[in-house]
Amino acid sequence: MANKVFVGTSLDGYIADRDNGLDFLESVPNPDGHDLGFVSFMKSVDAVLMGRKTFEAVLSFDMPWYAKPVFVFSSTLKEVPAQLQGKVEIVSAPLKEVIKVLTVQGMKDFYIDGGQLIQSFLAEDMIDELIVTQVPVLIGDGTPLYGLLPRHLEFELVKSEVLLQALVQSHYRRLRKESKEPVYE
Amino acid sequence: MANKVFVGTSLDGYIADRDNGLDFLESVPNPDGHDLGFVSFMKSVDAVLMGRKTFEAVLSFDMPWYAKPVFVFSSTLKEVPAQLQGKVEIVSAPLKEVIKVLTVQGMKDFYIDGGQLIQSFLAEDMIDELIVTQVPVLIGDGTPLYGLLPRHLEFELVKSEVLLQALVQSHYRRLRKESKEPVYE
Question: Domain range for residue A99?
Fold first, then answer.
């Protein structure tokens, strides 16, 4: 059972620029349409969990819809667009409860997507795998991937590789050994 | 001629924790005292430039002093400790002027050290090489390596390697081609 993040960031850790733009993520030429491991990653999860803002952003992209069930965390959204009925469900319970319910339904591995949802999962130490692809550009401002944490979270490096001669993709797994780091109250 | 950064950060981009601690940088076991490329890096520069805070932090460390001349940016510091006379000089001119003066003195390659000084150099697009070693821990708060920038700065990836089976060290070089990124005013 694992909650996984698969995300691209600028060198300074942003997932979108200050105008919510994602162009910087495409600044590296990719003539052959390398999927950067995304297809294989998607095969490794049973469902996609995302926040409302990410859902709305994704809706606006011209891309094929996810092959896995999508759950959108939102307390304001009431229904999903007609063409996504049956593919998308809105949830609004606390993270742990949602995971518990989905687990009871037989799902085990989750793709946690969207800046705020990732931060919420990390704040509760509920992320098990982190696959981060760093694009070699500093953008200086925008939506940061990481946020405040109640304590240090140690990871082990599973693998790191260079893609397209420009991107550094590193795969981390949460190390939940006894930590000597301070727990902030 | 190059201004270079050689720095260790947490996965979330901090160079010190919120108590100015650096323990997290040592969280990866290093039984053989691997220098992570620092000795070879130091050979590649002619001088070290740092801010006042970094200078004072470095003074408090029990470590051998730099083999290269050190220049400390400060408008408040008036003199250096007796044992460092001749090894450390205080400078307070604008960055470009300091680099110009040192270049006239025959120095070409500079190690730019310390969070604030690195940010100032980046803000003026005066960093040519960036060697960042990422430690696999999220600390959530502290002194960030990167700051606001007037525009996007693109780099090319020179090399990325895994050290001590845990650290990802990536070497970037500034790409000063015509950029299509927006310039923020």
Answer: 2-174
CB contact under 8 A, B24 and A168: no
Chain B residues lying within 8 Å of A19, measured CB to CB? 182
Q: Is residue A179 part of a domain?
A: no
**Contact B24/A139, CB-based, under 8 Å?**
no
Using CB atoms and an 8 Å cut-off, which of residues 87-146 of chain A contact chain B? 122, 130, 132, 134, 136-141, 145-146
Candidates B132, B168, B182; nearest CB to A160: B168
Write out pLDDT tens, residues B81-104: 999 999 999 999 999 999 999 999
Which has more confidence, A180 or B135?
Answer: B135
Angle at A75 between CA A51 and CA A147, to 5 degrees: 40
* pLDDT bucket at A185, cuts 50 / 70 / 90: very low
Number of domains composing chain A: 1
Tell me the CATH number at B103: 3.40.430.10
Q: Is A106 part of any domain?
A: yes
Instruction: For residue A181, tell me if it sits in a domain.
Output: no
Please report, for residues A158, B82, B92, B99, B146, the alpha-carbon distance to residue B49 in angstroms, rounded to integers and kept in the order given: 35, 19, 12, 10, 17
Does the CB of B178 have a partner CB in chain A at under 8 Å?
no
- A170-177: average pLDDT: 94
- Does residue B167 lie in a domain region? yes
Question: How does pLDDT run across B145-156, given as a tens digit for each residue?
Answer: 999 999 999 999
> The sheet that has A70-73: what strands, in order across it?
A88-91, A70-73, A47-51, A109-113, A2-10, A129-135, A167-174, A153-163, B137-138
Q: What is the pLDDT of residues B41-93, one digit of tens each?
A: 999 999 999 999 999 999 988 888 999 999 999 999 999 999 999 999 999 99
Interface contact flag, B136 A157, Cβ < 8 Å: yes
Kindly list the residues from chain B whose CB atom is less than 8 angstroms away from the CB atom of residue A177: none
